[in-house]
Every structure is written in C-alpha cells, then in structure tokens.
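User: For my dataset I need records formatted as: sequence, then structure tokens, nothing else. Please produce one.
Assistant:
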Amino acid sequence: MRSLVFQSWRGLNTVSSPEALRHDPRTGAFELAVAVNVDVLDSGRRAKTRPGFGLALPGDWRDGYTAPDGRAYAVKDNVLVEVLGDLSTRPLAALATSGRVAWAALDDLVFWTSGVESGMIRAGEALAWGGKVYPEASEAGRYVAPPPGTVLAGFAGRVWIGAGPLLHYTDGDDGQFYQDAANYLEMPGEITVLAPVDDGLYVGTTAGVWFLAGTDPTTGLQMVPVSSDAATPCTSLPIRSDEITQKYNAAGAAIWTSRHGIVFGLTGGIVLQPTKDRVALDAPAQFGAACLVGRRYVVLLHP
C-alpha cells in the first residue's frame, strides 16, 4: 500500500475529479476537493479549524450594509435599522414589503430600495427619496422621483439603479432627480450587480458582466463584455487593486462572486478570475452576502 504525506495545501479544485487532484510527493502539497470548517493559511502551509459560530443577536436579520462613514444599517424584523456600536439598534423605517434591500452611498447620503419601496438616509434620519421640486422652474416638469430597483450603486455623482434589464441613473443634484424618458440604459440580461471603479461601472447580469467605460452617461459610455459568467447578487464590494496585485496601477477596484468563485474588476475593464479553472459550483447561487474581514473577502452563498 502506498502512503501519501500531506504537508501543505494547493487550494481548492472542484473542477477535476477527486482521482485527478494533484499531489507533489516531494513537498507533500496537494489539492483539496472539499474544505469544511477549515481555514487554509500562509499560502497553504498550515490549516486552522474554524471556531464555529454562535448567536450574536436575536431577531430576523438580513441585508446588512456599512456606509463609507462607518455607520452600519440592516433590516431587522422587517424594520430598517441603524446598528450602533454596542450592537443595539435604532429604528429608521418600517417596511411594507419583504424584498431584499439594496444600498448605495453618494456623498453624505445613503440610499436604499427593495424593488418596491425606496428611501434615503441623511444624518441618521430616514427620508423620502425624490419628491423635491427641481430648482429651475422651466425644467421642473421633466423630472420625477427615481424609480425603485433591486440593485444600487453610487458612482460619478449619480445613483445607479438596476431594475430588471434597465439601468437607471439619476441626474445628479444629490441623487434626487430623474428623467423618466431619458435617464436609463438597457442591458442584455437582468441586472444582478453594480460595481463601480475609478473609471467606469461593472454591470453584472444574468447574461454575463459588462464594463461601462466612462463616467458621464449623457455623453455616451462604451459597453464592453468582460465575462460570460453571471455575477451573484449581493456579493460585490469595493476594494483597492494594490491589495490583490502589484501588476497594475493602484486604483479603486471591485470584487464579486460567480459560479467559478472570486472575480476582481479593475480599472480599464480588466477582469481577473483567479479561481475560474479550479472552482465551479454545481449551479449559480441565487444570491449571497459578503463582507471584508481585514484583508479577507468572506461570502455566504444561497443555493
């Protein structure tokens, strides 16, 4: 009988059959077909059992969000709340529907939408989104309140709203104004992720991911397909490119998840998929939840 010594890990490989996983007899390095409740650390040189989890707070929690100013928000028992430093909550608005809440920040404002309802938070107070009179009386009739959606992003002085295949964008001015007949683009599939970077916007859809190059939709944005893999809803977060690679100039970037694992979106429409040849889910996840813990990207996927 042949004995194998496992001394280090080369990462996950869910694409190949278990019999085909690589093992280096000289170093003892091998690939993992499954890793359950294990953190692989120091580039595979050691593994640590995860400590498990316990109940932190009672209640029906969902759709958490941390704003750029450090304030945390969530939905608890179908009420929009601010989560304070001692983990107590301050109610902001009761929701009439149970749809997933999407969030975005623009300057000092936080916007939210559930696909049916929407609103904004200014200085810790929940307010209506829209309904303001346009400052130029001769133009006021052209503007209405921004529509609700299922995906949001703040980018280039506007709030971008994904609703089905339509990508709406506000007309600036604190994200309050929207031209119903003009301020939208149509994407090839249902929008699942909006991920801004310094020079453009990644738009994840059920048909793949596109990069909208530029910052002003009124002068035209170049729409470039960058990935055929659908982006999983609720998994995108902003990062810095120099946190993941030194090959490109340091700039704002984005991270999200697809059925092939982690995806990085850099400026210029450059997409890196480090796990594409090693990870494949049996089927795309319906949605997820993601956070950054130090330099680690942690994502939970709902099948």
